[in-house]
Design goal:
Blueprint lengths: L2 H11 L6 H20 L6 H19 L28 E4 L10 E4 L15 H38 L5 H14 L12 E2 L4 E5 L7 E2 L5 E7 L2 E7 L7 E5 L1 H6 L4 E10 L5 E8 L5 E9 L4 E8 L9 E6 L8 E11 L2
Antiparallel strand pairs: 1-2, 3-4, 4-14, 5-8, 6-7, 7-14, 8-13, 9-12, 9-14, 10-11, 10-13
Length: 343
């Protein structure tokens, strides 16, 4: 069972999955998560986007068949027939006297109900009758459109008021599973000196820079590369001792005397959310205190800002991460750590 299917089943398990309307809301939320994920990766080809949507459709269809069994095939229709011809139905005709000025002969027409017949003034021109009919049609179409909009708006408001909480953690898990399936990984490509020309970011750490990581005794740091890309999986032990990432002295001194934004691109692992804490020691340039972040299973940017002193760093600095402040040993995947001057 893949991550997308697991996330959908968890969402269904938190409500009345026997209710077809509830299941449809979960499925719609899954497709909405897919659409958001595809929009966040514009370089994805149309063919791959279509393939991912078809994969999600197949997953939803497989889950739905567990609730609605396939219908048995209908028996073949009996093609035998009788050569006897069908009775001919002849409408009842009646004579109606017309205006003598128009036609002196009686006119035959099918019998209709009085309600179906509408009197038409003979002195009214054909064009004026068409204009009235067209004007009435426009009014009817306008009223119909207004009614439809009101009904749709009321339905959307009711659905959000009663089921909006399902767009929370369960839908984030679905979106995370979609991100993993599509192979989303890390920030945009970087130049040789670590700078991202488009956004002005300078890279402090990438997953292949494992030599910059110093886990304490009992903690772990493992470089992994799979279909989702490259990342560093770190895990603090019950003591809560943080895992240190070395920041090169020359990188810090490049931003001395400025306010700097640091960005940790991370996600929770094994489908579990966690709360991590971040501390930093920049020597003579300052520090960032201690900040906590709630980390979900979808990769996100975790930012903090520091005003660096206008002085030499004097030594290499560190950014230290405790992956689980509760001490239960939950881990975090680190995809990159970057910095840039604050706007």
């Amino acid at each position: 069972m893949d991550g997308i299917e697991q996330a959908i089943r968890r969402a269904l398990a938190k409500g009345n999955s026997d209710d077809r309307a509830f299941r449809e809301r979960v499925y719609r939320s899954a497709f909405a998560a897919l659409d958001r994920s595809l929009k966040e990766k514009p370089e994805l080809t149309v063919e791959n986007a279509i393939k991912r949507r078809k994969t999600l459709q197949a997953t939803v269809k497989a889950i739905e068949t567990e609730y609605v069994p396939a219908l048995a095939p209908e028996p073949a229709a009996d093609v035998s027939f009788s050569p006897q011809p069908a009775p001919l139905v002849v409408p009842e005709l009646r004579a109606e006297r017309g205006s003598a000025a128009i036609d002196s002969a009686p006119r035959l027409e099918p019998e209709t109900s009085a309600r179906a017949r509408r009197p038409v003034r003979l002195d009214q021109s054909r064009s004026s009758r068409k204009q009235k009919k067209r004007g009435g049609g426009r009014v009817l179409s306008l009223l119909t459109g207004v009614v439809i909009l009101v009904v749709l708006g009321t339905g959307l408001w009711w659905a959000y008021a009663n089921f909006g909480h399902f767009i929370g953690s369960d839908m984030r898990q679905i979106e995370a599973a979609i991100n993993e399936r599509r192979g989303q990984s890390g920030p945009p490509p970087l130049s040789a000196d670590g700078a991202n020309a488009e956004a002005g970011w300078t890279t402090i750490f990438r997953p292949e820079d494992i030599q910059l990581v110093s886990p304490p005794e009992g903690a772990s740091a493992e470089a992994i590369e799979d279909e989702t890309g490259a990342y560093l999986r770190i895990r603090s032990d019950a003591s809560g001792a943080p895992i240190a990432f070395t920041v090169a002295q020359n990188l810090l001194e490049r931003f001395a005397g400025q306010r700097v934004v640091f960005n940790i691109l991370a996600r929770g692992i094994e489908g579990e959310a966690t709360q991590m804490s971040v501390e930093c020691d920049f020597g003579a340039l300052g520090n960032c205190g201690r900040t906590r972040y709630d980390v979900g299973t979808a990769q996100e940017d975790y930012l903090f800002e520091v005003a660096l002193a206008d002085a030499p760093a004097g030594r290499s600095a560190t950014i230290a991460i405790n992956t689980d402040v509760s001490g239960e040993g939950r881990g975090v995947d680190i995809l990159s750590i970057r910095m840039r001057a604050a706007d």
